[in-house]
């Protein structure tokens, strides 16, 4: 009898490798008891310089519960006050009007997570920073009084060209890292599929034909 | 049983092994270089509950005569590597409730009739700790190998990142000023007053482009006093042997051996197991400072705002509903 240990070792290794690659995604971020929201790339906020070109970035949404959860996403305008605090405005106002989310609603499996892309149409010229926030809530609250809804937000800022920001990660680095992780994951999954297919074919060949 | 790796299998196994091995290869070259560990995977969690800490149930937050309208807002950091945050709130108008839906054709109670205040003046921080990298000074006398002569060792090493709690009791509104210098994150009280402009409700036909956003609680980074952190670290680790400090996770043994070997003028591979045991049990540590800045913090921050409603005399009798949205955002 031929041992299939080699295949099994290979398959397990690929699965571990895939999990490792997926695990590179950031886990830090603000959260509630049910879900979390974070800028990808282990940043606390998303900041880019105004270049006049679209900037691609992403946020990570994750489910902390053992059940499926639907998260509603939005982008709201944000104003920085004189005291440094931020005032969260309405959906689609200010800079938020120039930010497009890949999806406004994501349904996550238990303990699931999903990266949601966003595109910021940065202006050519900007005299002072502009802000918005990607927000997330876990479905509408229903109650017989004043419903209290917990919402999470990731600040998005666009700064004048050359202003820079210590808190900002370069869009290229963050985006390239995300792309690299996604590509690596896809390649690993493809390799896993090939291995499984080959394994199934080999088993069929080794099984004596009926009759 | 025959175990034979055919060519395709070998390729697949090699590819798989490469997948697993490549991420690990970054660590393969480290030998006796002092290592600082940065703790990752921190979290910052928002919880909005009733004043007792219980979940706000399906009854929501009752307002009006006989109802306090108080809620507890809590933010808990666990080794979180960013300090600044704010918790803010927006309020919708209160619309007549038909029993199944909002009656947007009815006259609402405006959000401006609802205000936020802090009647209990409660604001506290509990179990606040700072993530820092301690600097450890190892001293003692060792006699190793063929040297035969006792050598006084005095080496300074970077330890691994530690979560240090300098304040054992909760910091309250009245003690905040005196304790502020020891905190890795400041704590500001929230804004008071009415929600002048309403936020929109799902499905509401009226647009609300500029809702009033009230900050309920916020915090900013600050550098806590190094002396307080050093004192707290020495209270725990001061005087312990190198072996104990390694066992406690404060030091890396390779770093200790490397530093001692450097002072002895030999390479670490010339030290026998007995020499290493001598070194680890003969040297004792003292924390002399903090390397770099605070890397993050743990702690639980609370405030107790209350919503008050001033129902207009023109409002019709009936059940009204609205929505308070409490938002946590890193700043």
Largest interface: A-B, 59 and 71 residues
> Low-confidence parts of chain A, pLDDT < 50 over ≥5 residues?
1-27, 165-178
Please report which band the strand proportion of chain A falls in: under 5%, 5-15%, 15-25%, 25-35%, 35-45% or over 45%. Answer: 35-45%
Q: Determine the structural class of chain B based on helices, strands and strand pairing.
A: alpha+beta
Structural class of chain A: alpha+beta
Number of strands of chain B: 15
User: What pattern of helices and strands is seen along the backbone of chain B?
Assistant: HEEEEEEEEEHEEEHHHHEEE
**CA-based gyration radius of chain B:** 30 Å
The number of distinct helices of chain B, counting runs of at least 4 residues, comes to 6
Question: Main sheet of chain A?
Answer: 6 strands, mixed
Shape of chain B: rod-shaped
Oligomer: heterodimer
Arithmetic mean pLDDT of chain A? 79
- Global mean pLDDT of chain B: 84
Distance between termini of chain A?
A: 22 Å
| Rg from alpha-carbon coordinates of chain A | 22 Å
| Model regions low in confidence, pLDDT < 50 over at least 5 residues of chain B | 1-39
Got a strand count of chain A? 11
Alpha-carbon distance between the two ends of chain B: 63 Å
**What percent of residues of chain B adopt helix (DSSP H or I)?**
10-25%
Strand content of chain B: 25-35%
Topology:
The complex is a heterodimer of chains A (211) and B (331).
Chain A (H helix, E strand, L loop, with lengths): L4 H18 L7 E2 L3 E5 L6 E4 L4 E10 L5 E12 L5 E6 L7 E3 L3 E4 L4 E9 L8 E8 L8 E14 L11 H36 L5
Parallel strand pairs in A: 3-11
Antiparallel strand pairs in A: 1-2, 2-4, 4-9, 5-6, 5-8, 5-10, 7-9, 10-11
Helix pairs in contact in A: 1-2
Chain B lengths: L6 H22 L14 E7 L22 E9 L4 E7 L3 E2 L17 E4 L5 E20 L8 E8 L3 E3 L6 E2 L3 H4 L8 E2 L3 E2 L19 E6 L6 H12 L4 H6 L5 H12 L8 H10 L1 E20 L2 E4 L10 E11 L1
Antiparallel strand pairs in B: 1-2, 2-13, 3-12, 3-15, 4-15, 5-11, 5-14, 6-7, 6-8, 6-9, 6-13, 10-12
């Amino acid at each position: 009898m031929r041992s299939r240990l080699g295949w099994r070792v290979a398959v397990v290794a690929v699965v571990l490798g895939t999990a490792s690659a997926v695990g590179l995604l950031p886990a830090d971020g603000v959260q509630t008891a049910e879900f979390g929201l974070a800028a990808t790339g282990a940043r606390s906020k998303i900041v880019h310089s105004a270049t006049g070109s679209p900037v691609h970035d992403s946020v990570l949404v994750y489910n902390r519960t053992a059940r499926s959860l639907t998260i509603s996403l939005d982008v709201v305008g944000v104003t920085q006050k004189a005291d440094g605090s931020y005032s969260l405005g309405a959906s689609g106002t200010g800079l938020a009007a120039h930010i497009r989310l890949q999806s406004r609603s994501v349904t996550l499996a238990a303990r699931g997570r999903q990266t949601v892309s966003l595109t910021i149409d940065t202006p050519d010229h900007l005299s002072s920073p502009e802000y918005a926030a990607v927000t997330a809530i876990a479905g509408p609250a229903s109650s017989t009084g004043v419903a209290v809804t917990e919402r999470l937000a990731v600040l998005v800022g666009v700064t004048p060209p050359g202003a820079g920001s210590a808190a900002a990660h370069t869009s290229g680095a963050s985006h390239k890292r995300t792309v690299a992780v996604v590509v690596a994951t896809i390649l690993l999954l493809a390799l896993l599929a090939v291995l499984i297919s080959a394994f199934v074919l080999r088993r069929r060949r080794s099984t004596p034909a009926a009759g | 049983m025959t175990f034979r790796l055919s060519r395709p299998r070998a390729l697949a196994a090699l590819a798989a092994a490469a997948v697993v091995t490549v991420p690990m290869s970054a660590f393969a070259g480290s030998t006796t270089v002092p290592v600082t560990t940065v703790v990752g995977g921190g979290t910052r969690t928002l919880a909005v509950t009733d004043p007792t800490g219980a979940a706000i149930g399906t009854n929501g937050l009752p307002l009006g005569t006989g109802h306090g309208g108080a809620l507890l807002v809590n933010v808990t950091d666990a080794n979180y590597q960013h300090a600044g945050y704010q918790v803010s709130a927006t309020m919708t108008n209160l619309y007549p409730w038909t029993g199944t839906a909002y009656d947007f054709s009815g006259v609402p109670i405006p959000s401006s009739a609802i205000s936020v205040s802090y009647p209990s003046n409660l604001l506290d921080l509990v179990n606040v700790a700072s993530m820092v990298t301690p600097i450890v000074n190892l001293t003692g006398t060792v006699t190793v190998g063929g040297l035969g002569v006792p050598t006084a060792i005095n080496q300074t090493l970077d330890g691994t990142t530690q979560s240090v709690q300098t304040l054992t009791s909760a910091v309250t509104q009245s003690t905040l000023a005196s304790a502020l210098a020891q905190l890795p994150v400041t704590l500001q009280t929230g804004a008071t007053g009415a929600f002048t402009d309403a936020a929109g409700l799902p499905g509401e036909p009226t647009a609300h482009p500029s809702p009033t956003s009230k900050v309920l609680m916020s915090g900013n980074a600050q550098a806590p006093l190094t002396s307080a952190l050093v004192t707290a670290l020495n209270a725990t680790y001061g005087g312990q042997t190198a072996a104990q400090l390694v066992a406690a996770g404060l030091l890396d043994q390779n770093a200790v051996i490397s530093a001692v070997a450097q002072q002895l003028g030999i390479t670490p591979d010339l030290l026998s197991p007995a020499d290493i045991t001598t070194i680890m049990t003969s040297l004792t540590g003292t924390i002399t400072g903090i390397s770099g800045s605070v890397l993050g913090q743990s702690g639980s921050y609370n405030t107790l705002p209350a919503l008050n409603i001033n129902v207009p005399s023109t409002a019709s009798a009936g059940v009204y509903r609205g929505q308070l949205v409490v938002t946590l955002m890193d700043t």
